[in-house]
Write a sequence for this structure.
């Protein structure tokens, strides 16, 4: 409430009402946090008293998550102009086929993970199991819901080849009909500086060919493939969806976000779907396939630049 009061006082003196917009979004997000915690506690008490099934427990928590994400994105649209446009050329998985999905998404720009998870939950009607940085457990609502819904939390300083890949494979093995495992193979948000550091890291490790590939891909980070390969090894029946998006990836600093408000460039998304039988089975062939798919993602983003 104090933030809103301050924002209202300062609003006339700020260009494009940036302070008021951010304060309104923060208030909406706080309301979502409180609602999720209250509803989550009530659901836990009800389940304890009535001994409801695991299936019921997951269903109601996914319902809370889908409503929370939809509410936050709606608030983002009304307050700061956040908009998601799905390319009409996207090939989405057949809604009549509930086979589990592995969703590989490019990571870049504020709010992209929320938008993609919301798309999977509310448009494709999938139960999303997400691989995400453990720092997001500092968010009380996300901590509550994602831990209840079998999310895989990755340490912020996780390195390629660590035990995290095995955890992702275990999560893939537990996928059921109607599930989608959302994974960001780059491991972190794209920025020009992170791309340069990643290329230097590959060269220091002697991965010269991987560094050369990364130098030709300007809009994505080098893949950290161990988690993807672990998931594909764990489940040969996984269909794969590759998701590219652009529009908000240039907002890499707080200053850039501030200057962009209200956001006038939408987040544009393109998806490519692959049936399980079209995905290579051998690790080397899978790595080559993933590299090619990430080159396609980079090319699509370049066409929009």
């Amino acid at each position: 409430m104090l933030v809103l009061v301050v924002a209202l006082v300062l609003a006339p003196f700020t260009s494009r009402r940036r302070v008021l917009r951010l304060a309104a979004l923060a208030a909406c997000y706080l309301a979502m946090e409180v609602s999720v915690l209250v509803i989550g506690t009530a659901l836990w008490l009800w389940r304890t008293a009535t001994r409801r099934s695991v299936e019921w427990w997951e269903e109601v928590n996914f319902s809370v998550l889908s409503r929370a994400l939809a509410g936050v994105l709606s608030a983002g649209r009304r307050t700061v102009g956040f908009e998601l446009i799905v390319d009409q050329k996207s090939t989405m998985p057949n809604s009549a086929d509930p086979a589990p999905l592995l969703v590989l998404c490019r990571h870049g720009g504020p709010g992209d993970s929320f938008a993609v998870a919301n798309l999977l939950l509310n448009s494709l009607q999938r139960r999303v199991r997400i691989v995400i940085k453990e720092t997001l457990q500092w968010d009380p609502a996300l901590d509550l819901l994602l831990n209840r819904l079998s999310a895989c939390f990755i340490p912020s300083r996780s390195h390629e080849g660590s035990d995290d890949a095995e955890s992702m494979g275990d999560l893939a093995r537990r996928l059921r009909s109607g599930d989608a495992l959302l994974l960001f193979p780059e491991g972190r948000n794209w920025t020009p500086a992170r791309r340069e550091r990643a290329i230097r890291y590959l060269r220091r490790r002697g991965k010269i060919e991987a560094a050369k590939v990364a130098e030709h891909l300007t809009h994505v980070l080098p893949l950290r493939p161990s988690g993807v390969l672990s998931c594909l090894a764990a489940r040969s029946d996984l269909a794969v969806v590759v998701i590219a998006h652009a529009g908000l990836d240039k907002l890499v600093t707080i200053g850039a976000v501030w200057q962009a408000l209200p956001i006038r460039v939408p987040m544009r998304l393109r998806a490519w779907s692959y049936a399980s039988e079209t995905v290579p089975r051998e690790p080397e062939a899978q790595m080559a396939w993933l590299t090619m798919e990430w080159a396609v993602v980079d090319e699509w983003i370049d066409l929009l630049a």
Summary: The radius of gyration is 20 Å. The mean pLDDT is 89.
